[in-house]
Design goal:
Strand content: over 45%
Strand order of the largest sheet: 3-4-5-6
Structural class: alpha+beta
């Protein structure tokens, strides 16, 4: 089971995810349904090459992510490049995409 409360501290209400190679776009509600049944154990996330650009109350973050996970006894290591967009809402930075 994933810690949705922890995710909710950084995700905006209208958060979306468009990084799936299939082209699928997930809403926050879609992701929550997935996480409630996902059996993957996330062992670690490592970030590098981070670049943060501020535009008023919006921040664009790019970088590399290495994700270590295990599912059904099989370990996996995946590497990605990512772009994330944050907005400052009520004095807190929240991810919107």
């Amino acid at each position: 089971m994933h810690d949705l409360a922890r995710l909710d501290r950084v995700r905006a209400e209208d958060w979306t995810y468009a990084g799936d190679p299939s082209g699928t776009v997930l809403t926050r509600q879609d992701a929550d349904r997935f996480f409630q049944t996902d059996t993957t154990h996330y062992l670690g996330l490592d970030y590098s090459e981070l670049n943060i650009q501020l535009y008023g109350s919006t921040a664009v973050v790019t970088g590399r992510e290495k994700l270590r996970s295990e599912n059904a006894g099989k370990q996996d290591l995946a590497s990605y490049r990512f772009t994330a967009v944050f907005v400052k809402q009520e004095d807190q930075w929240r991810c919107i995409a």
